[in-house]
Amino acid sequence: MTRPRRTAPPAPAGLSDANLRQFIGYNMKRAYLTIDADIRPTIEALGLRPATFSALAVIIENPDITQTILGQALHIERSGVVLIVDELEGADLISRNKVEGDRRSYALRATLAGQRMWATACKRVQEHDNRVLARLSPEERTLLKDLLNRVEAAAPSGRSGEETP
Amino acid sequence: MTRPRRTAPPAPAGLSDANLRQFIGYNMKRAYLTIDADIRPTIEALGLRPATFSALAVIIENPDITQTILGQALHIERSGVVLIVDELEGADLISRNKVEGDRRSYALRATLAGQRMWATACKRVQEHDNRVLARLSPEERTLLKDLLNRVEAAAPSGRSGEETP
DNA sequence: TATTGTTATACTCTATAACTATA
DNA sequence: TATAGTTATAGAGTATAACAATA
Known about the structure:
By secondary structure, chain A is mainly alpha-helical. The first copy, chain A, has helices at about 20, 25-45, 50-60, 65-75, 80-90, 110-130, 140-155, and strands at about 95-100, 105-110. Chains A, B: GO terms for molecular function: DNA-binding transcription factor activity.
């Protein structure tokens, strides 16, 4: 139905992992950490961290977003957003702009340098993605994302109360 | 081919995520963190942490394992293993036993209490797993694990140099 | 000389709580 | 009073480096 299951479950040396591998969360953690270790140096070579990379991505996509909303998008507290935005602003990749009618908040926008940075960072990470997904067919790639999203949505904290009633 | 793609990609409020959702690693991170947040309280209610839970799982499955090997299984340094083993030993869930012929290392074994603890902890986490995977068919569940393992194996740090030549 | 376990230390990430300035 | 941003602080998790005992 899918394929002969010829995947050697990546178990270390001569010891068994089955007790943990039975849990979807463990397989997910291992796969995620492996990918993360692969990509991180590439991101850092550009002067970014995963957190600033992600923030830049969201700001590019949602111009004039506020820090509070950015925090919600990244699932981090406002206090953490400050540091990330400080870092991006200090690198001249984004700017904090005044908001008409509310002097409390900032409208975050990527600078030109920020847009260029995102373009190249995005491209390089895409290359990693392609390398890591090389053995998966296009259908398998979308399927994997779909399954991950469904798992995320199924867990209690998964937003979207929209059940299909 | 697979199913109508009716998965609402869990995007926050009114803002777009697509820049990040394009990357398999981001979807994996989000799914993993959601599952982790779901399961953690259950594990902690038993007096365990994710790290001690995992270590107990490996020790149960590989009796007389040494700390160094345990570290390799868990992908953490030996110095970190010490703290985890201290904690498990302090809770009387495992014991450090003498090894014939090598007085440097310990043979780690679960106590009876440790085996009972693992049984109940395993059962409870399985329940979370089932809840989180509720919307996936049995085939989809194995498929998801399979895809995750293939991604993990594909990344540079993925062990198993065994290509199918 | 190399290895096992250990200790001390530091770094990253993130959360909590209290503060300020606006609303 | 409530909210946006800020600051200070603390905790979890993990890594690095140096050390003692043993191989």
